[in-house]
Write a structure and sequence with these properties.
By secondary structure, the protein is α+β, with helices and mostly antiparallel strands. The protein is 50% helix and 18% strand. The protein is built from 5 helices and 6 strands; from the N terminus they run H-H-E-E-E-E-E-E-H-H-H. The protein has a 6-stranded antiparallel beta sheet with strand order 3-2-1-4-5-6, with no helix packed on it. The two termini are 13 Å apart. The model is unreliable at 1-7 (pLDDT under 50).
Length: 237
């Protein structure tokens, strides 16, 4: 009797290989599209100067009046302010949290808005300033972390797809419990553990894949060898 039992068919491996393309495409899209676009937008924003007579890609300051605010905390929280300009036109501005300006605003308050490329980037009231959800931020490390995780998930799926196509499906150590789940969780935690400190310390975004990919690859090899050594006593029986 086969000690490994019967495993999933090779068609499952082909299907898994196709599904692995989804995180692979997400990884490619983030690294080649979203990440460079965010970096370029942030650089343009920080390089923009206050508007003069020439106008152009510059920062304008506009006096606005608060019409209403919404501060809804919780998992699906909402933080926004409806502002009115001199011509009674309204604009709804979203924020990431309530402070330090939004929570203090009341209908009728006057604020100074910083406008760039037709959108409100920040709102100031007195000496306090709060960036809006549209304000570019130097957070490429988190985007790189997500892209790296997507790439690792794609690699994990491709690895299991190859194992299934080779007839190893369901055989130790090529099982979800032995390799799949530990590597999936480990990949996510590793990307997070690298991306957050990189963001807080100002390290460049490429540090995230540069550290996470080799670490997870090494951990995968070690875990695979460990699972194989566990099989030796069982095979001997």
């Amino acid at each position: 009797m086969d000690v490994y039992g019967s495993g999933p068919g090779r068609w499952t491996g082909a299907l898994l290989g196709v599904l692995a393309l989804i995180p692979a495409l997400l990884c490619w899209s983030l690294f080649t599209g979203a990440l460079p676009d965010d970096l370029r937008r942030y650089e343009d924003y920080t390089a923009a100067a206050p508007c003069g007579d020439s106008g152009g890609d510059c920062l304008r300051t506009l006096p606005l009046t608060v019409d209403r605010t919404v501060v809804k905390k919780g998992r699906n929280g909402t933080f926004e302010a409806t502002l009115i300009d001199r011509e009674a036109r309204k604009v709804v501005v979203g924020f990431g949290d309530a402070g330090p300006v939004l929570a203090r605003l009341e209908p009728g308050d006057r604020v100074t808005a910083t406008v760039w490329r037709g959108r409100v980037m920040a709102v100031a009231a007195g000496d306090l300033r709060q960036g809006t959800a549209d304000e570019p931020r130097d957070e490429a490390q988190m985007t790189a972390g997500l892209a790296t995780f997507a790439g690792l998930v794609a690699a994990l799926g491709a690895g299991f797809a190859i194992a299934l196509l080779a007839g190893l499906g369901g055989r130790q150590p090529w099982t979800w419990r032995s390799l799949g789940l530990p590597l999936l969780i480990g990949s996510g935690l590793t990307c997070l553990a690298v991306a957050v400190p990189a963001l807080l310390t100002g390290l460049p975004w490429w540090v995230v894949p540069g550290v996470a990919v080799p670490f997870v690859s090494y951990a995968a090899v070690r875990l695979h060898r460990y699972r194989l050594r566990q099989l030796v006593p069982h095979c001997a029986e």
